[in-house]
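Why predict the complex rather than its parts? Because the way molecules touch one another can change local conformation, and only a joint prediction can capture that. The input here totals 918 residues.
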Amino acid sequence: MKLKTFFNTLVKQATYIIIGINLFACNFEEENSIHTKSIVYCSEGTPETFNPQLVTSGTTIDATSKQLYNSLISFDAKDNSIVPSLAKSWHITRDEKMITFYLRKDVVFHHTDYFTPTRKLNADDVIFSFNRILNDDHPYHNVSGGKYPFFQTVKFKSLVEGVEKINDYTIRFKLYHPDSSFLTNLATDFAVILSAEYADYLTKNNQKSFIDTHPIGTGPFKLKDFRSGSFIRYYRNEFYWQHPVKLDQLVYDITPLNTSRLTKLLAKECDVISYPIAHKKITEHADFNLDAVTSFNVGYLGFNVTKPPFDNILVRKAISHAINFQAIIDIIYSGQAQLAKSLLPESSWAHTNNSAEREYSLQLAKSLMEVSGYSQGFSMDLWAMPIQRAYNPNAIKMAKLIQQDLKHIGIKVNVISYEWNTFLKRLSLGEHDAVLLGWSADHPDPDNFFTPLLSCAARFTGGNRSFWCNKEYDELLRKALTTTNLKQRKKYYTKALAIVDNELPLIPIAHSKRYQARISSVHGDILQPFGGIDFSNATKVELTSKFKNNKNNKNNKNNKKQLPLPQNKTTTMSVR
Amino acid sequence: MLMFTLRRLSLFFFTMLLLSILSFSLSYFFPGDVLVNLSGEVNASPERLVLLADQYKTNGSIINQYIHYVTNILQGNLGVSMSSQLPNSDEIANFLPATIELSITALVISMFIGIPLGFIAAIFHRRKIDDIILSFAIIGYSIPVFWLGLFVILIFSIQLAWFPSAGNISLLFEIKQLTGFLFVDILFSDSPYKWQAFTNAFSHIVLPASVIALAPATVFIRLARTAMMEVLDTNFIQAAKTKGLTFTQVIYRHAIRNALIKMVLHIGLQFANLITFAMITEVIFSWPGIGRWLIVSIYQRDYTAIQSGLLVLSSFIFIVHIITDFIYAALNPLARENKHGT
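Output of the joint prediction:
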């Protein structure tokens, strides 16, 4: 009896406590307005700098280019054509050696805690941005090491004679010789426009290095806060010239582990994550979308044509028929890549359907081996790169599949891999027989696939690991660059492709896709077919709170019916 | 009370002496140059090295070196971290408050769950409730904390999406760091989303704090049960009962108070345990605390960070012990007669 009364008091007290906790918990249900106006993007790494002129690394480009800056011109996301950006129009002289840009007059630079601009964008800013790269004596040229890798690979200095100011809103580029890829180079994520006024201000305060660490640009977002290895916080640029930016805040949550990124997405701590794993798990959920975009890249099997037996075209062809490439696409890329028919991805304007499909036929392969005089077979070293790339997620596994396939035609394959830097070094010395590698394009111009991978000059600069050199092929590429007539260029490239198809210094394997996963309420074309991601159009449609469960999921579904969702350009894999 | 204080102070002094000798000797045991191990400045110029050698007297006798090492520490100079090249004292000031915050929350949770359950078990001694509570305590004590952490993330973050799985607050909230204690900083901040930030931080601390709290809670259950049973057996309880007080009155007015005094000491002792659990849990929940910082430093072979982290953490635990000793002595006059440190 005594115990019972005690027990009753206890139960009463426990009830009060539970009610108290519930009252507190109810506050979680209040409107989470900060979440609807902000996006948290879980990225895979810390950017090296905030100036894309200085790098080629994808992580840095993703974090900076399209968020902080604009270029003079840009690519249209639909057909890759060049469209106006900071320059509202441009004019090319008949000899194609002078290009005049007419600038917009309403472009405002970022107003931040560390700098407030007093004037709008004008010709000085453009000239400053390019002279920094072109002139070795420019006061800012050596500020962050003086290396401009993208501009060095496209030989910008030996192409551009100078940039001159015609008036406050007109500038003119003078070229040494016509080059049809010049405009595409200016439209890339690397050719951003910095503020000359900010540079003057920094020179006065003796803080020159701030230009690359405390960025001032014209893009949709401005830098608020950054902690290396932890996060980047961007605020809305309230004066963005193109359109009002819908997000208040954009936060990059730097999460290098791919399992952590997945957990954070599933727990809705991140709205968008880069390079997701477990695609199936994501597509199973109604709350998440998996985006994919075919990027401009190619994974290939390259032969060292200076080494026998690979100097023999027939051997290379035999191998191309003996490998089951469809199986590689299914296993290595989980079916999420396009079987490459040629060097060029199908979305390139220079792509033609002329190249014949490679036939998987052991019969044919064996007879080719016999004709070439290697019917006994031989042993070869196949080098597989040790790191993951979009164009080849697992080169070593791929090498093992090829090893199995080539056994059937009597070729014994040794799979070899080194640490990445050693790998590249020994590769450039030509120690390999064959290699699994790939290439990601910087811009949509087809030349970006042809010249760096297979031209004679690229044998020495390091892109051409086949050491294949064909005068006719090089001549076609040169001709293609000196004309701006697209039809003519396409003809040249088709011929060049035919030569590659015939000689087969490398076998293109796949054009892979780039992935990203997001919460369904996030809309906008974030993934781009090439270059960095773009949050300028991203929005969050309805409220998603982390604290809400089933009850709110129902609400979400209702919302979806009511709101017409903007159509996403990138392929949405599956929304169940 | 004076003798008691002196005894505790001498204990404190000798423990700190041993700790500092251990930490100092690590510079010699770790591979690499002693001066670099002491200062952490990996890329120091020759001129800087001369300055550092003077600061730590590395050319003098070992005793002299030790004295200068301790002087440096007392002046707040813990060297710089080998990997980040930031002063260790700043790093610790950044990370330690988050750990203290997490540990205190966990301690409160474990006390509020463990002690009442232990009392209930003692009151219902040898009945079903007692058995149930005891088996819960054994099971809870046997679950490894890293497994529990992952399990809890799987259930409450991923499946149910009730609580977040990483960090101590959503990155969307900008909270200026004043004290390092997040909840205090939020209250002092002028963010328009103060209340949202507060609930957000609260939801972030629930899972890790509960995971850490489980093991100490089960210890508290058993200790509270024993303490209560001892109290219930004493003569003054019998006397209270014969005076005609109801059972509820006896429990609330006499038994709980006396049993609680005995618990104070144990709470202090459990704190060391709690910090160990917190270190593992911080890694699992990406909690920006000193445990995670220390474990990352061990991965990166950041010797100066390991040394100073070790020193600060162990002195912190020791100080907590001494404080609980004092509180216990203040509450319980009998303990002041204890001649030896506990």
